[in-house]
Amino acid sequence: MKKIALYPGTFDPITNGHLDIIKRSAKLFDEVIVAVALSEGKKPMFSLEKRIELINGAIKDLQNIKVVGFDNLTVELAHEHNSNILVRGLRSVSDFEYELNLSYLNNSLDEKIETIYMMPKLNHAFVSSSIIRNLLQFNGKTSHLLPESVEKHIKELDICTLH
């Protein structure tokens, strides 16, 4: 049976930390589905379509990765894609507390759902999408924090028109 992992998140935007986890997950599973949440409540800087486009650009050389958008429960999305494995990134103790509760919730909705936690490489451990968004608002340097294709694409955009 094919092992399909779902890596859900907002990815607003995708960072080198996300990409690190995607690449390492791709070595562990037959297929990794990067599931991009609409997350209107978080008021994302980038539209769902733009986030999907940025991720597709960052993963273009990877073979067993697929990107989908979603606006339903993660467990429901996992069912739609015949997956019972969720991949989640952990950077800090505060991430762990949040992720643990989320894992318990998902498992209460479907006890077959397993959550696999992966930590990004140390040089990406402090990187978050919110840090990137703050840097972008003030034209801060992000080239060392973003995949090259994402950095290039964002620099071509007018940040004020991304909503």
Question: Would you identify the CATH architecture?
Answer: 3-Layer(aba) Sandwich
Number of domains: 1
- In order across it, which strands form the biggest sheet? 3-2-1-4-5
Query: Do you know the CATH topology?
Result: Rossmann fold
Sheet/helix structural class: alpha/beta
Mean pLDDT: 92
N-to-C span: 41 Å
The fourth-level CATH homologous superfamily is HUPs
* Largest β-sheet summary: 5 strands, parallel
Global morphology: globular
Secondary structure tally, helices: 6
Give the helix proportion (percent range).
40-55%
CATH class call: Alpha Beta
- Poorly predicted regions are none
Helix-strand pattern: EHEHEHEHEHH
DSSP strand count: 5
Query: What gyration radius follows from the Cα positions, in whole Å?
Result: 15 Å
Q: Roughly what fraction of the amino acids lie in strands?
A: 15-25%
Explain how this protein is built.
The protein has 163 residues and is an alpha/beta fold. The chain has helices at 16-28, 48-58, 74-80, 93-109, 129-137, 148-156, and strands spanning 4-9, 31-37, 65-70, 85-89, 114-118. The N and C termini lie far apart (41 Å). The model has no long low-confidence stretch (mean pLDDT 92).
